[in-house]
Structure to design on (396 residues):
């Protein structure tokens, strides 16, 4: 493992979440020993994504198409909109495959500490989507953190006069829990028991 | 995660050792959100390795140079040769940074069950290296498995009349243990207490 190229690859892989320095070295060796069936396909897969990477102009999802596959999926109910903090949360909700509507990614959460105000999040585009009509229910699926709750109540107030039903995920999401770390069963239960924002 | 490109990348990553389907999805998202500082550098690192990948003609190591960086390192003692089963074992030995000599990769171990005989391993090249002179000690660093022990005794017999000292790793490697999974301390201890093959 003395070559600079191999060291650089090992370091690049060790920066991925879930891979420490040791597992990165094992991954490198795995790739080196499988040039045709692992290394080249991985390069091709990364390039295909890199060349087509786009942020969806409608919902903020990251995809290889714009508008994204979620927004253009005709089987999804356009009357239902789920608002999440981050793209990772959209993917976590979508893994459960139990939300039949569309999504809106805020790109963060309100935070006095970090100086994040409404203008820093994708809230104006959210209001525009809702005001354009056709949406009947907005599910506010913020993380169950203090800042998530603040964001949820702010959005509920903004949406109060839009003529849409505004709901939140049921208790079931553990306090302090982040959606992206939950199993599908917990997310499914929280979705089924969703209720109007108080 | 509906686009075929993103699914393909997620699958390619999930085949790496240490990354399951969930951590692969997290890794994909990590890359998608960091196109310039993570995705492009990873592609470049993989390509640099892929373009220069080579198996060392001397020792069997996988590197981006041939002969490899270990074989051409002038600080290593050419009188000491460590024989290992796989490239992963060479790297594991080298991580401990306590073996000051060179290596020879057999490419496997003798196995009646799997039909692997001496002709299937890099044994003739090993004998040629030893017979070329200059080597004083050969450390047989096979895994502490039945097949590793069989391979070690076979090699010890072949090397008996070559005028070199033939040693093995000390007990310290757990029975059934594979070098690549051991911590550096265990490997270092086993190396320090190495003894002649009985
Ligand atoms: Zn979209
Ligand atoms: Zn070499």
């Amino acid at each position: 493992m003395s070559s600079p190229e191999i060291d650089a690859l090992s370091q690049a892989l060790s920066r991925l979440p879930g891979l420490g320095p040791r597992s990165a070295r094992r991954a490198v060796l795995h790739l080196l020993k499988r040039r045709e069936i692992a290394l080249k396909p991985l390069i091709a897969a990364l390039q295909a994504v890199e060349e087509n990477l786009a942020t969806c102009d409608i919902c903020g999802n990251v995809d290889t198409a714009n508008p994204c596959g979620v927004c253009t999926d005709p089987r999804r109910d356009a009357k239902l909109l789920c608002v999440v903090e981050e793209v990772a949360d959209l993917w976590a909700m979508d893994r459960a495959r139990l939300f039949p509507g569309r999504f809106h990614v805020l790109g963060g959460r309100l935070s006095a500490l970090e100086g994040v105000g409404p203008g820093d999040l994708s809230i104006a585009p959210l209001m525009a989507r809702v005001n354009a009509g056709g949406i009947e229910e907005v599910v506010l699926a913020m993380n169950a953190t203090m800042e998530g709750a603040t964001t949820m109540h702010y959005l509920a107030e903004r949406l109060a006069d839009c003529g849409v039903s505004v709901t939140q995920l049921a208790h079931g999401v553990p306090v302090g829990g982040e959606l992206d770390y939950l199993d599908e069963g917990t997310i499914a239960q929280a979705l089924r028991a969703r209720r109007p924002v108080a």
In short: The beta strands of chain A are 54-55, 62-63, 77-84, 101-105, 137-140, 165-168, 195-196.
